[in-house]
Amino acid sequence: MKALTMKLQIHNIEYEKRGEYMTRGFKIRIRGPMALFSRPELKVERYSYDVPTPSALRGTIEGIYWHPGVDYVIDEIKVLNPIKRIAVRRNELKNKAKDSTILEAGNNTHKKLFIDRKEDIAQRNSSILTDVDYLVTFHFEINDKADRGTTEEKVTAILSRRLEKGQCYKQPYLGCREFAAQLERFDGDLPSYYEDEEERDLGIMLYDLDYSDPADPQAVFYHPVMKKGVIRVKKEEVYR
To answer: Is residue 186 within 8 Å of 28, Cβ to Cβ?
Structure first.
């Protein structure tokens, strides 16, 4: 896969007081030839939402810099290109290697330690977005997992430096790992394809997963409305 080049959105959007921490906002442009933001209710054959979920964009940003003491919060999503789809049929495996299977194979020499492609292969359809382009405004918050050395200034400096140099913790992607994301510097504003559309109700969408209980993560939803191509995300208005 071609190496990813990323540039910094230099100017700061805003400072906002949240609890005892100051948070700094950024605006970046995220785009790619394909994207798949899977609807959780359709598990076998994947069908993408019309727009990215906040959790998917958070994962994209975490690809640049991840830290357990830092939470990225999506504030605004601007849809620049028209929403287009293609249907793709792919060969996939129904099973994957599990830790329990590997342990069992280690204790039993007759246990197969591989996945039989002929038995496990299955054809599945996916509804994928194409030629996606988004202008995303986000900020970060420092949580209680951060140590004393993790400050707002330090996180800002690290995030900015990584964006400038094109460094990343892992390859940023758009929903699925095979759909690499391109992040680039943004100056000023860009028009949305939907600027003339007053309002579009996108229905109930996945917001994120609540890992308060790691053994039983719970889905959290929200109700986005796109106005003139812009979705304003309010994490306080979610459904559990």
So the answer is: yes
Q: What is the helix, strand, coil percentage profile of the chain, to 5?
A: 15, 40, 45
pTM: 0.80
Radius of gyration of the chain (CA): 20
pLDDT digits (tens, 9 = 90+) for 158-199: 888 888 887 888 999 999 999 999 988 687 789 999 999 999
- The whole-number mean pLDDT for each consecutive block of 10 residues of the chain, a chain of 240 residues, reads 37 38 71 94 88 95 92 95 94 74 70 71 90 95 89 89 83 92 83 95 93 87 95 86
- Collect all residues with Cβ–Cβ distance below 8 Å to 64 and sequence separation of at least 6: 6, 159, 162, 163, 167, 168, 169, 172, 183
Separation CA 151–CA 236 (nearest Å) = 24
What fold, for 15-87+129-233? Alpha-Beta Plaits (3.30.70)
Amino acid (1-letter code) at residue 67: H
Question: Rounded to whole angstroms, how far apart are CA atoms 36 and 56?
Answer: 9
- Residues pairing with 142 in the sheet: 70
- pLDDT for 124: 86
Listed by start position, the domains of the chain span 15-87+129-233
CA distances from 27 to 31, 105, 146, 162, 217 (A): 13, 49, 24, 15, 29
Which element (helix H / strand E) includes 126? strand 121-142
